[in-house]
Specification:
CATH topology of one domain: Jelly Rolls
Largest sheet: 7 strands, antiparallel
CATH architecture of one domain: Sandwich
CATH class of one domain: Mainly Beta
Distance between the termini: 88 Å
Helix content: 10-25%
Number of helices: 2
Amino acid sequence: MANRAIIVAAIALALAGLVSLTLVLRTAPSVTDMPSPIKPDLTPAYPVPPPPLTVYQAPVPPNAALPERSQPSTPSAAPTSEPVARAVRWKPIKSWTGSGIKTTEPFGIDKSPWLIAYRLRATREYGAYLGICVYDSDKLSDVAVNTQSEGANTTYVYTTGTTHLGINGMGNWAVTVYVQD
């Protein structure tokens, strides 16, 4: 009760301009000066998990071929009929570069899947964002890319026929469409 009276008097004097409020309040005991019978235990009751791992996927070059399966070094008793992975070759058919929004011209896709390779570089003003939508005529078919990560990457698209892309980017971007050769 006495502390409350001191604080009220100090505020009144400070408002009157007769005494500095900071000097009076510094003389009042603080919570840290008072003895506390209970010391808080700041150790967590459960183990603290490590920070999340950031996994970066290396971009796949469009003309990367799958390795051939190696034959076992020792002969097996019975021959196996496992299929051998075939190398897929990709050829570029369309490319665009820019920043901002672009609707591409229509192009034809005869074989599925096809590949969109993209590269994104942030700008100081806007950061990095790239969204690529695939359209069948004027209907949305697929949201192929939706990223805020700088760098290069690829994505597969599983549609055929006449299509076009809607590209929405903040930063500088380059987009190339590849089809199977």
